[in-house]
Amino acid sequence: GQQLNQSPQSMFIQEGEDVSMNCTSSSIFNTWLWYKQDPGEGPVLLIALYKAGELTSNGRLTAQFGITRKDSFLNISASIPSDVGIYFCAGQLRGGSEKLVFGKGTKLTVNP
Amino acid sequence: EAGVVQSPRYKIIEKKQPVAFWCNPISGHNTLYWYRQNLGQGPELLIRYENEEAVDDSQLPKDRFSAERLKGVDSTLKIQPAELGDSAVYLCASSSAYGYTFGSGTRLTVV
Question: Residues B53-86: pLDDT tens digits?
């Protein structure tokens, strides 16, 4: 099936550092989303992107929808300990109630 | 507003036994999804319902998995018989025009 290639697989950073992760696909997606998953919980939506080239911020998080519609990145600025978790990118071919195709996740560890 | 409610949170069963998971979506959400998340992977869709109709079940292993959404509200996902490879987290989600909401999942361990 379709897959999203997410990198890096894991990151170990110091509190206060900035973080960047990205996601690529061989297919065009019309919606890109970024989720965070804490242990024992379901994914929680962080940012949704609906237009190619769109740059959207949510507090310390910034995400961009690639101009080719085949990639997206997520930046976290000034990381804090509660940023620890697994971050997933997800795409939808068309949008709406269609299924989400997920990447394999980036596990973030923040050292105080 | 209550979120997507799933039960049980954890289940440990022996292989070849049956198991069932239950999901109560957010009120008013017509679309309901079951995803499976293997260890170290992202979730993958098993089945999607629009009201009580299954509109995408292409990834559901129909020889042992079944699902239903009677009356277009709650849903159950069943595995019979379970295999060792079915160990995973089973996530339910529901959606409206404003996006998806996932439940906390059921962690299934087959021994």
Answer: 999 999 999 999 999 998 889 999 999 999 999 9
Whether B1 shows a pLDDT value over 70: the answer reads: no
The size of chain B, in residues, is: 111
- Closest by Cα among B105, B76, B102 to B18: B76
d(CA A107, CA A87): 6
Nearest to A42 among B42, B91, B99 (CB): B91
Helix (H, G, I), strand (E, B) or coil at A78: coil
Give the minimum alpha-carbon distance from A56 to chain B in angstroms, rounded to a whole number. Answer: 16
Place of tokens 């300990």: A81
Q: A76 in the Ramachandran plot: left (φ > 0), alpha (ψ -120 to 50) or beta?
A: beta
Q: Is B25 an 8 Å CB contact of chain A? A: no
